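I had to read the description of the data format several times before I understood it. The format is easy to grasp once an entry is in front of the reader. For illustration, here is how one protein appears when written out as sequence plus structure tokens:
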Amino acid sequence: MTDAMGPDGTQDFIAPQSVAPQSATNSVDNQTSDAAPLTLEEQLEAALTLAQTHYDSFLRAKAEADNVRRRAQDDVSRAHKFAIESFAEALLAVHDNLSRALAIQNTSVEAIHEGVSMTLKQLDAAFEKFRVVSENPEKGARLDPQKHQAVSAVPSELPANSVLEVMQKGYFIADRLLRPALVVVSQGNQ
């Protein structure tokens, strides 16, 4: 890059040959070595052409990035919306069996018991498939506030904070607590 004084006493900027785009350089190389250097207007035109090419490439890359981001957002939105679709499909069979059981007229207690038992097995299979695991602590187990919720404490021979009775099972889904087990605990010896 050199600065030269023009005839009117102002400095003229002469761009280096490497600023010209490849096509302009090739056309210069194809000419004889006696050819005159590029004029300022030619250099400006080459630089503008190169700038426009880079700007077009930038716009295309930006549009592609926006499209990828939008598709990713749509995928996440669809995943949230339909995340429980498979689980709901597994529960449809349970619902159908319960509906059929209610539709039956004049049935025996044993038949109802058998139908409810089979439906519960079907529900348990759906829970197992989707890693829904029950939390049902044994009597005498230590109260774990991460898994259990004490609803009352009663005097007992067991040590304090020991589970005496399970009022309602708790449930986990893939090692994440859905609902704590509701338990009655021991106050200890008094």
